[in-house]
């Protein structure tokens, strides 16, 4: 993947309107310059943050259309809530949406949604693409990989009864199986994961200003087609490696008609014996199982040209690890077998066939343990987790990848991953955490998530850190979490080892985060500290973050009711923070502990600046959570300064569910 984001953005700068509200949409409707965004924001608001990518984003709601703009809406289980920027364009057969290219491009990515089949399983439907009214091409859209329903771990069946009738659900505020009379639960129950995306090479390079029109044919089988956005890109020529173990020489089929897994194995074995790289020329290769990699370099011609694609295969009996399906994936050896080293993967796409969440399945795009290794320039979609690493392992560099349309996480450092870096990766539409570090049983240590973009995780968090030591989360852009999560979560949960050493969270931007927690029925924060299994008392500094357009709180520190008097969150330092728009408070504290604040500037705050409930014992001495003002904390909202003297150090200001004031769109500070 090209890294020339700066050059692309510069070329597009003359075409960018700095106003991204209704005015921009009106300009686009009049045929004026295209509106370029990043996470549906003016790029100037996120300069220097997020993944440096080679494509340019345009939201459909700013394009010319005879369809209907849907949204904004942040309510889970709706099409707008999972759209980038919480808006999209809905087309019926015969309607179109048209974009103007902001810079030269020869490739497009369309993010879309079409209906599910009545009984689940998805449908297909056509979408026509023309440039300047000619050069017609077509995509076959599918909903096979979208539309999940019901309770965890979810189902593809829209007509299914509750998977767990003995669980409490918010819809009736009851346990259905223990309630008389039994509540009527509407079907489909909790539909979500609506979107998918497809890429298309246009066959030639078009110029800035050319018009790309997406049209739903009049005879479409889909009652409606929602277009969320268009990414446009100038893709370079395929990469060629003449001195390498070319998989074609070992029997691989570039047309994808025959399974090429054995040919890949033979090429890898030959390359290791002869100290060569393995080369995957342009083509689509069918691979339906894991390719085990150790001490090998595998290069494709580029993720637009080399595609490794697999079917999901049922296993009978299940594998020893509990998997009931096999699927395409490149795996290091298991850590118990010593793991793999010196693995370098680059320049190809991995496309899985995962349509349901089975947590025991090893159907991830990249997996196992890989030390002293790199993963660069891959495009992953339709696997369970894009990359899941089980340590112990060390010194892994994951850079410049695109990970989209996953059933679960995009990436997870699970158990004993150390001194590793994840940077410049673009993530969109995950079914669980976008990027996660999970220190289950063995602590992760010394890891960094830097300059990544995570958009629209439909469940859980954009970036999550569950325990571990000496962690850095820096310069990331996280947008549009939908339910049961935040943009950034620091969580003592899921059996994670304690936080120790230093945790640095700095220079990140979140937008349209701070979701409504459906089980607790409270609003979360754009950043969320959660002490469920243990106290959180490491050296934690949050510095330079920008929290934009938070639906509820900007910052939340919380414990669970059952352990509220056992665990605390102490000595978190917030410095040089900007908060632009909260539906409720700047800080919500629902735990015992403490935090300090320095140079935290806030505006457009919807409720009292600090909603301090402590651990809900309400002692006469004040809240069990105390705040320290280190100076320079400015601004606020309708109630006055956000950190007023009367709130310090621990005034109880508890409002369990304050009214929400919709904040205005973010703007330059």
Describe the structure in your own words.
It is a single chain. The protein is mostly beta strands. The strands form eight sheets. It has a 26-stranded mixed beta sheet that branches. Strands 15-20-24-28-32-36-39-42-47-50-52-54 form a twelve-stranded parallel beta sheet. Strands 1, 3, 4, 6, 9 and 11 form a six-stranded antiparallel beta sheet that branches. Helix content is 4%, strand content 39%.
SSE arrangement:
Layout: H1 5-12, H2 22-29, E1 55-59, E2 64-65, E3 68-70, E4 88-91, E5 96-100, E6 105-113, E7 124-131, E8 134-142, E9 196-206, E10 211-215, E11 225-233, E12 245-246, H3 261-274, E13 278-280, E14 283-286, E15 290-292, E16 296-300, E17 306-309, E18 313-314, E19 325-326, E20 329-331, E21 340-341, E22 343-346, E23 349-351, E24 366-368, E25 370-371, E26 373-376, E27 379-381, E28 387-390, E29 393-394, E30 396-399, E31 402-404, E32 411-414, E33 417-418, E34 421-423, E35 426-428, E36 435-438, E37 448-450, E38 453-455, E39 463-466, E40 468-474, E41 477-479, E42 488-492, E43 499-506, E44 509-511, E45 516-517, E46 522-523, E47 525-531, E48 539-543, E49 546-550, E50 553-559, E51 568-582, E52 587-590, E53 592-605, E54 610-612, E55 625-629, E56 634-637, E57 640-641
Parallel strand pairs: 12-13, 13-16, 14-17, 15-20, 16-22, 17-23, 20-24, 21-25, 22-26, 23-27, 24-28, 26-30, 27-31, 28-32, 29-33, 30-34, 31-35, 32-36, 34-37, 35-38, 36-39, 37-40, 38-41, 39-42, 40-43, 41-44, 42-47, 43-48, 44-49, 47-50, 48-51, 49-51, 50-52, 51-53, 52-54, 53-55, 53-56
Antiparallel strand pairs: 1-11, 2-5, 3-4, 4-11, 5-10, 6-9, 6-11, 7-8, 7-10, 18-19, 45-46, 56-57
